[in-house]
Amino acid sequence: MRKIIIGSRGSDLALWQAKNIQDQLSGLDVESEIKIIKTQGDNFFSRSFSRLEGKGFFTKELEDCLLDGSIDLAVHSLKDLPTQSNPGLQISALSDREDPSELLLIHPESVNIHEVFSLTARASVGTSSPRRASQLLSHRPDLEIEELRGNVPTRIQKLRDGDYDAILLAKAGVKRLGLDLTGIHVEELSPVELIPAPGQGVLALQIREGDIQLEEKLKRIHHPEVEELVGVERGILSRFEGGCHMPLGVYCKKESGKYMVWACKADNLETFPDRFYLAEETIEELSQKVYEKYTQTTQRINSVFITRELNPGGYLQNYLNHKKIKLEGKSLIRTFPIIHKMDSSIFQNIDWIFFNSKNGVEYFFALHPVLKPDMKIGVIGRGSEMALREFGREADFVGETSDTTRVARKFSKLVEGKVVLFPQSKDSLRTIQNGLNPELTKSIDLPLYETESEKNVEIFYSDLIIFTSPSNVVSFLEENLIESGQKVIAIGKSTAAQLREYQIEPNAIPYTPDEMGLAEAIFGML
Fold first, then answer.
1. What is the CATH number of domain 335-453?
2. CA 19 → CA 9, 13, 65, 169, 170, distances in Å?
3. Does 483 have pLDDT greater than 50?
4. What is the pLDDT of residue 390?
5. In the annotation, is 29 catalytic?
6. What's the pLDDT at 458?
7. How far is the C-alpha of 473 from the C-alpha of 337, rounded, in Å?
8. Most CB contacts within 10 A, which of 2, 226, 392, 445?
9. Whose CA is closest to 91, among 106, 101, 104, 78?
10. What pLDDT, on the 0 to 100 scale, is given for residue 244?
11. Residues 393, 364 contacting (CB under 8 angstroms)
């Protein structure tokens, strides 16, 4: 096998990626060297990225060098590579996928954990990505988005220097470079919370067509399972004919035998993005189905009733305002405390506290508990997490799905050999406790409050009813009927099970039991 010339950009991250591939080739007894190529994107660090024209800002020159034979292999970040292949070139291998999450890095003087994403009001956030900016503004419209250029270490230094209150970066780059984030507040945003760029975290190995010898070698480091999933993501991008300027995020994963896709698209930074979630048994035509949802939607829902008090200015309210859908809300149950004083000695041997509802958080902290400094806290979802922030605490674990069985499975790995306290309602279903291994984890129930149905609540007719708990289902159906043509969303599996006891099949169960999950489910019904 001849000596291979690997083409790479000159940034620290690009060189790390090229050296990583070089090491893998060495393991296949392939000798190689790295040649640095400067690209259009590297030449315009002082110019707004959104004003650069065309596609392939970080790839075109590498592709030109492949075609003229001055290099044999180009290592790209897949998310930078246009979806249409350059004639004469081919992608012969994809790397394993690094975590595609985003990191929101916040200057220590700009942290306020009481706010969404722990950012102070009207904070300046540096990013050159319309996709990141669009999604961030959908949660925090008060933020100021500012252009951010430079390689990853340079961007982090700009944050340390106080040029920005916060910056958004891909976790993959920070992790690969092993960068020191000491003194910086880090908020990790999962790929189902802030949806990444198609192919984020994956390296693409590009060669000339007809280089059979090198192609055969690269097959040995190719990851076909990654190719399958990012093929869906890039298929959606291709159908939109989108590039780096389009506020489009797409993420696909396979879980429990299903292919799950999240997409988030806005027309521009002034419009609220539409989030969509789709789960299918087969990957066939998955990209086309997502594309058709965005391009063939008709408004079939004009009013929504949710069985809880409204969250003014929250994500769901803002999204439905954008869609011109009327939202009414009223809890059909009331709660009252059954413990009025907390004995702090209860925490002496407790390692974790887990909250399975917003009410649990509020009733617990209303008792002014004195917690150990090293006490860890888990919450069922982002709604409970936001309630926790109101009391100045951050969660060490946040459930990401409305399937409490999956949440319990993931949480159980963290609490083996630990003691977990569960502040909850007197009639809690104990779904998380039931999912823990009692031989490995000790759970202690702490009933704090009771619930009972509210009587004679005025219910607003709506095209869609969102049920937020099993008890709200019971309370609603004690005095009301689901009318013909009304659609129903159940916030989670236990709520769906309660509906089925009344022979009502919910039209949707959102993947996440929060306002973003509800927005995804509603868009899927339009």
1. 3.40.50.10090
2. 12, 10, 18, 22, 20
3. yes
4. 93
5. no
6. 83
7. 22
8. 226
9. 78
10. 60
11. no
Instruction: Using DSSP, state whether 328 is helix, strand or coil.
Output: strand
- Residues 183-200 have pLDDT tens digits of 999 999 999 999 999 999
Question: Which pLDDT band, with edges at 50, 70 and 90, does 57 fall under?
Answer: low
* Amino acid type, 43: N
The yes/no answer on whether domain 303-332+454-519 falls in CATH 3.40.50.10090 is yes
Indicate where the chain has its CATH 3.40.190.10 domain(s): 4-96+202-222, 102-189
- Tally of CB atoms within 10 A around 322: 15
Q: What is the pLDDT of residue 53?
A: 43
Mean pLDDT of 341-346: 88
Radius of gyration of the chain (CA): 25
Instruction: Count the alpha carbons within 13 Å of 474 in the hemisphere toward its beta carbon.
Output: 12
| Of 153, 123, 154, nearest in space to 136 by CA | 123
- Of the candidates 72, 80, 211, 403, the residue annotated as catalytic is 80
The side-by-side arrangement of strands in the sheet containing 376-379 is 333-337, 442-453, 419-425, 352-355, 376-379, 397-398
Task: State the pLDDT confidence band at 443, using cuts at 50, 70 and 90.
Answer: very high
CATH 3.40.50.10090 maps onto the chain at: 303-332+454-519, 335-453
Say which amino acid occupies 235: G
Give the C-alpha separation, 437 to 147, whole Å: 49
- Closest C-alpha to 468, from 350, 379, 384, 348: 384
Long-range contacts of 140-149 (CB under 8 A, 24+ apart): 140/115, 140/116, 141/318, 143/119, 145/269, 147/48, 147/49, 147/50, 149/44, 149/45, 149/46, 149/47, 149/49
The two three-digit tokens of residue 400, written as one number = 């990401």
CATH superfamily for domain 102-189? Periplasmic binding protein-like II (3.40.190.10)
Residue 4 reports pLDDT greater than 60:
yes
Q: Among 3.40.50.150, 3.40.190.10, 1.20.1300.10, 1.20.1260.10, what is the CATH number of 4-96+202-222? A: 3.40.190.10
As a whole number of angstroms, the distance between CA 298 and CA 413 comes to: 44
461: left (phi over 0), alpha (psi -120 to 50) or beta: beta
| pTM for the whole structure | 0.92
